[in-house]
Amino acid sequence: MSDRAQEALAITLRGVDELLIESEFAQKLARSELSGKPLRVKLGLDPTAPDLHLGHTVVLNKMRQLQDLGHTVIFLIGDFTSMIGDPSGRNITRPPLTKEQIEENAKTYFAQASLVLDAERTEIRYNSEWCDPLGARGMIQLSSKYTVARILEREDFTKRFKAGTPISVHELLYPLMQGYDSVALHSDLELGGTDQKFNLLVGRELQKDWGQEPQCILTMPLLEGLDGVEKMSKSKGNYISITEPANSMFAKVMSISDTMMWRYYELLSARSLTELVQLRSEVEAGRNPRDIKVALAQEIVTRFHSHQAGQDALADFDNRARGGIPDDIPDVRLDGAPLGIGQLLKQANLCASSSEALRMVEQNGVRIDGVAISDKALKIEAGTFVLQVGKRKFARVTLS
């Protein structure tokens, strides 16, 4: 391999969980350099929710690195496979989305992905292009390429089968449909999270059946959410959306632990590995890890908003830390004074329920105009005031 190809391989390997098969990919890189023909790099995402979060950008960042190396990146929107629902990592059947839900979510996906990828150099495709024309005959022919025994080797299917948990027949088709995407796109490399490994390997096997050179597969770690335990997920509420306001994004990054901060740096930051080693050394030598976390939060906010937004978000965060009230809080108008504190917090959308609101009062997590509230039976008279729940939830309420 040339020095350039070796450098490209090193960039590709940064932060990855696994690259299969590395020697094959090295050969693809060398051949691409000699021929001047870029590799075709595929990432598929099913539009099961309208927003992308930072967990999604782990693999998008890797796509951008490969794009900057001169390769063709294909952002595949799984509008067909969304109707099946990816069963990866799930212990129950995912409720299928309607065509209307899928179309609505798909509208926003590429726009959000373009905050990381270079939109001008990205090939965007929808897998309904080749999946819809398959029809019943094509689906049967595709299904003949794989055995039930091999499909059930997938860990989540195995667990559900042994536990007697229902597995719908359409779920067994999902890995085949994702694999067929690689055939349709003549993929050289497919990216995904570690939970996608089985599906990516199916793509390799189907390409062989179609007489194509099998793709290599690259899996990226699943980014833990704000709780530092579960993978980042909208359904678990531990996520940072890439479209949420700058101040909220900054504050959420600052809420992660000092230990988890390094994980976020490795998977999300554009800083070099040499820089990260230097930052770790500085913390070990006594530098406050908060300074390092602030730099990470500003980098992320700058990427999805602007440099000025990153500066303003830091000022807002420091203001809140001193007990100040941020400028950009929602205005809420309510009727029914005098109103119990539990109902007030619920109607102001600061708590999901009145019982949750009363628990927050018990925990000294509620303030009115900066004054902590401890009386769960408190009734609030008409007027305008600022409600605060926890460190980040505020609303300016006018009650009549």
TrEMBL record:
Residues that hold ATP according to the record: K234
Pfam families cross-referenced by the UniProt entry: tRNA-synt_1b
Location in or out of the cell: Cytoplasm
Keywords: Aminoacyl-tRNA synthetase, ATP-binding, Cytoplasm, Ligase, Nucleotide-binding, Protein biosynthesis, RNA-binding
Domain of life: Bacteria
EC top class, as a word: ligase
Subunit: Homodimer.
Role noted for this protein: Catalyzes the attachment of tyrosine to tRNA(Tyr) in a two-step reaction: tyrosine is first activated by ATP to form Tyr-AMP and then transferred to the acceptor end of tRNA(Tyr).
NCBIfam families linked to this entry: tyrS
The protein's name: Tyrosine--tRNA ligase
